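Worked example 3. Consider a protein that binds S-adenosyl-L-homocysteine.
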Amino acid sequence: MSHSVTSFVCTIESLGFSGEGICRHEGQVVFVPHALPGETVEIQIIKQRKQFAFAMVLQLIHPSKERVQPICSHFYRCGGCAAQHMTYETQLLFKQLGIQENLRRIANTALQAKPVIGMDIPLNYRNKTTWKVALIKDTAFAGFFAPGSHELVPVDTCYIASESSNQTKNAVVRWLNHCLKTGILQNTLPIDQFTTRTNQSGELVLILQLTSSELPLADELIHQLQQSVQKLLCVCTVNDCKRVQVLYGQPLLKESVLGVSFQLSPFSFFQVNYKVCEQMYAYAIKQAVTDHNDVLIDLYSGIGTIGLIAAGSCKKVIGIERNEGAVLDARQNAAMNQISNAVFHAGEAEAILPRLVAGGLHADAVILDPPRKGAHRKVLEAIVQTQPQRIVYISCHPASQARDAAVLAEMGYPAVASQPFDMFCQTAEVENVMTFVKKSVD
Ligand code: SAH
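Given these inputs, the predicted complex is written out as structure tokens:
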């Protein structure tokens, strides 16, 4: 089938999972980034695939009333956000409908996804931001990559990053350009990206990703940062081999979540949005733990966040996590909070859980929070073998979660609730918590 390269007018029918508009043209599906349902747009195909095509908007003929001016002037080029062109209510509805679609099509259930729990002010929420840096015509810039590319889009202010992350970025860029101007750097940069991590009291750790063995004028950088960032806690570098070198301060952030204190090392996983994370953990634990005598398994436990918060309301917590550093953090966090009813096992859930099951482990509830690809079937089988009453599944990838939901239903655990949380405001991503309850035998 041949498709014209010239433009044509169409009406957008729906939104795809990445927040792009979808329309049909000459019998094929066309994805149109930044177009909204109901809009009449003039578009041009820019990429033709066998089954579908991508197009760009040439002209907005009839805009949707859900359309708003993006807060960020870089929005249409930057790959960081995908939904700033729609009202926040529309963003939340779009995410709810996406989850609904996964439940219907993949999980094969009639369960309704609940409305997404969002933020009052859905901006400046990220506690971790990784800025990319590059030279453009002899000047250093920081920003983010354009969608699906490694082309830097320089960004003045990132509205989903914290204010202190933006201030840090300005100081780093100023230092790089100072080194370039004085001839200390020539044509190459000593870093290709840097990450800021902050806690709720505003303390900041900066991690610079080295491309060379030396950081020139490190004292100048620290001086610049001290001038610009109010609560600078630590500056460190990391090389290709993940070797961390501290240039200033201590690389440990302390954070309190729902009354439990945590210590985070620079590379430990932590949810990026503290406010939404607290609401999500509180909800997940309430869904899972119903009695003080409950035994809870915290699968994919990271630094022990969920299990340690739940420990106060149940008899015993068993955490399983493959990252040994994170397990050490979890044990240390347990000790720091004087929690003695939580144990953490280091290893793959696929190996550890079946072993514990073989040893006779029974659980009343399981909370699992796997990576994007979801849980291995072996893990789901082992969970069911612990005979829990309730399984609570936290996921940042509703499609793999829906696939696993179908497996759990098959094994006697139908889904009873799907509650999404807007952990990643202004983007197309969403976190979803599903609850499964053991089917009663009647
Ligand atoms: N529940 C934690 C961490 C969730 S992130 C929190 O809320 O902070 C997912 C975690 O799963 C990561 O820490 C990752 O190291 C771990 N992980 C990934 N694959 C795993 C596997 N096969 N077995 C055990 N842990 C795994």
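Take a moment to read the result before moving on. The chain has nine helices and 22 strands. The chain has three domains: 8-62, 96-120+273-437, 128-255.
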